[in-house]
Design brief:
By secondary structure, the chain is of the alpha+beta class. The chain contains 15 helices and seven strands. The radius of gyration is 19 Å and the shape is globular.
């Protein structure tokens, strides 16, 4: 698809308080190496294409000399620039975190630029999280990539080349009109597709959850059939910067936390939550630091099998 000439960018400069690692802060927003809505470039820039309340927008963020430069294009440009500080963790309070384990303390010392992002957007984290339910990350990333490229729209501004353009995810109504065979072509089974369809029908109410405390937002999300604690936690970690939202029901996280903090390679959710009790109010940050420590138990079971939905 030919690209239009780039419009002038809106610009905002912002000075963070303390160290800031763009890759650590914004990395959780990336859904795989070929995510059409996210790109990191060799010059250290991070690009995001989002569907904001004001419309589609593209944001480019660069950090240098203790300052952050944000450039944005499209109808959503000003909304993205207004939210730039919170996107980069300005609403986060890392000083409230007190390490209780040597491994966690060391991981924190080595990653001083970690902040928890707050996007202020629900659906852009909810839909890919639903696609990640009960399948491998490779399958989920492929589904997100295919559906966004097929039904989204080109990102505003100079967001990539004609060979590899960036895309804004579809609007709620567009998600609702995707034919069943397109979901299947993307490898999405009927259960996950139905969950997305139920969510986009109440998209406005779900987006309003950004004004709620994270636990209340999770409760609102979980009213939608097919959205449980795993999915709602994955969403508010990104939309709210929720420092205490633990991802329960995950295939790997309990074993990783159990191994890192107690040498227990068979830990389940109950064990993980008990080990994270000393970090009440900061349990998600503690779990992230455990993951960043690299202390992962050796795999003893096969990876989650790929599922051919044509056989279901």
């Amino acid at each position: 698809m030919p690209r239009q000439a780039a419009e002038p960018a809106r610009v905002r400069r912002w000075t963070p308080q303390g160290p800031l690692d763009l890759a650590l802060v914004l990395g959780p927003l990336r859904r795989g190496p070929a995510d059409p809505t996210f790109r990191a470039t060799p010059d250290g820039s991070v690009w995001r294409a989002s569907r904001t309340p004001a419309g589609p927008g593209t944001l480019r963020v660069r950090a240098y000399g203790g300052e952050v430069l944000g450039e944005a294009w499209g109808p959503g440009a000003q909304w993205l620039l207004d939210g730039l500080p919170e996107l980069l963790g300005a609403a986060d309070d890392p000083e409230a975190f007190v390490p209780r384990h040597r491994l966690v303390a060391l991981a924190r010392h080595r990653r001083p630029g970690l902040r928890l992002t707050r996007t202020g957007l629900v659906l852009e984290s909810l839909i890919p999280s639903v696609l990640e339910q009960k399948v491998t990350t490779e399958e989920a990333y492929r589904a997100w990539r295919l559906l966004v490229r097929r039904f989204g729209e080109p990102a505003p501004g100079p967001a990539g080349t004609s060979e590899r353009p960036m895309w804004v995810m579809p609007a709620p109504r567009t998600w609702a009109l995707i034919p069943s065979w397109e979901w299947h072509r993307a490898g999405v089974d009927d259960k996950r597709a139905a969950t997305v369809l139920r969510a986009v029908r109440v998209a406005a109410r779900l987006e309003q959850a950004v004004e709620m405390p994270a636990d209340e937002a999770q409760a609102r999300l979980e009213v939608v059939p097919g959205i449980g604690p795993w999915t709602s936690a994955e969403v508010v970690q990104r939309s709210h910067g929720a420092a205490d939202a633990v991802t329960v029901g995950d295939l790997h996280l309990p074993r990783i936390v159990g191994w890192a903090l107690a040498g227990d390679r068979d830990a389940d959710d109950a064990v993980m939550l008990r080990l994270l009790e000393p970090y009440a109010g900061q349990r998600h940050r503690a779990a992230r630091l455990v993951l960043l420590s690299g202390q992962v138990p050796a795999r003893r079971t096969p990876k989650m099998p790929r599922v051919d939905i044509g056989l279901l």
